[in-house]
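As a warm-up, study this chain.
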Amino acid sequence: MSEIIPPHRLPTSLITNMSSLISGQTVAEHASRDSCWIIVHDKVYDVTEFLDEHPGGSKIILKYAGKDATEAYEPIHPPNAILDNLPIEKHIGAIDPNTVAKVVKEVTEEDKRRQALLDARPPLDEVLNLHDFEAVAKAVLPAKAWAYYSSASDDEITIRENRAAFQRVWFRPRILRDVTSVDWSTTILGCKSSLPVYISATALGKLGHPDGELNLTRAAGKHGVIQMIPTLASCSFDEIVDAAVPGQPLFLQLYVNRDREITKKYVQHAEKRGVKALFITVDAPQLGRREKDMRMKFVDDGAGAKVQEGQKDVKKDQGVARAISSFIDPSLSWKDIPWFRSITNMHIILKGVSTPEDAILAYEAGCQGIVLSNHGGRQLDTSRSGLENLVDIVAALKTKGPWPNPNFSVFVDGGVRRASDVLKAIALGASAVGVGRGFLYAFSSYGQEGVEKAIQILRDEFEMNMRLLGARTINEIVPEMVDASALRSHAGLTPSDNLYNSTYQPLSLASFRTKL
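Now compare it with the structure written out below.
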């Protein structure tokens, strides 16, 4: 006979869940390091034992102890972060919304300055290129958001090289061709696209705009562009898919979880929801040191504390990136590719390939494509640009059969700011090109309308450049239309990209603390 457990022996959280809603007064009684409850999205959680494990330090959580932390939590955490990291017995229950004392957000001088800049933004009809969006975003984003979005690893050589590489490839246009009508639409992994561009995955969209990644989904659906959903989106996966129009193609970027069962459920759920391709990130067994992001710990409220006081071997907070990525599995290897093929029928693309050797291995492993990417310069600094790697990788893949290969796609991302960049990559053998930060800065500056404007800018640039090149369709963009002989020259007389340089923020050194 089963033992009947009396109420006084049940866990507190279960007793609470079985009774009425929790009052704000009850939550407020747990506002210390010894007993710390917080409210997130109308649910109460006991985070006492998680304080010293929080990648962002304990002080930022203690600031909201006994209070509603939703506003602080939401922009820098994926929707399921608290569910994945906090044991179920620490989920106390639902809050009575009528009893919660709202946290009054202090309007700082910095907030006032940012609002004034938002009010003074250039009207969209004066935004002429993707650099303009970046300049506006740099001005209006909170410092933490700009640091996270713009940062790259170590000395930020690769992020700058990603941009500079395109300036070392020169066009060789053809003349006297009837270019009355030009068509830049294409097919990407069997999906029609109005541009030879897809929206590459970028994390934490709500750092830049309250609607986060939904800005991209809505604009992409309206204009026939494919969006890659990030694993670390601010919006939930289902929110994003639900925002798509019927028949809108979506791809999924995947960081592989240490718990393969979680990964399996996520991938199969995505396939059931209609996602067409799985882009597995393979260049991030450990995150690069993104110093702009890391330095934010010294200016954020209380986030400069060690994760665990008194332990020399415990890392300090390393910025937003560290706070959201501890689940990523560094053991991911080639032996996992057959497993992925066994759990899904989606196209499998490896995102983060840099060498011909690995490109061939991906082809032989049965993948449907690769992305030549260095993670936007955020991983291994001084790694080559995707554009430079494209030349060697295409040459290697040509030894495996006819080219272009309809069953194996090669994509490039990193540093793209113009349609002319995309055309150079296509001429050198790319199937299509991913644009991440360009669209990210567009919605951070102007929301969905910004993304739509960015798409229109690219359309206008494609039309002009294809006419001037003498190409009427994407298939007519051929290697003979570019001179890439200077691509390997990493130092030379390449003209400076003044627009890019005007928005690039140089790294800073450690600062002395000002005594008040």
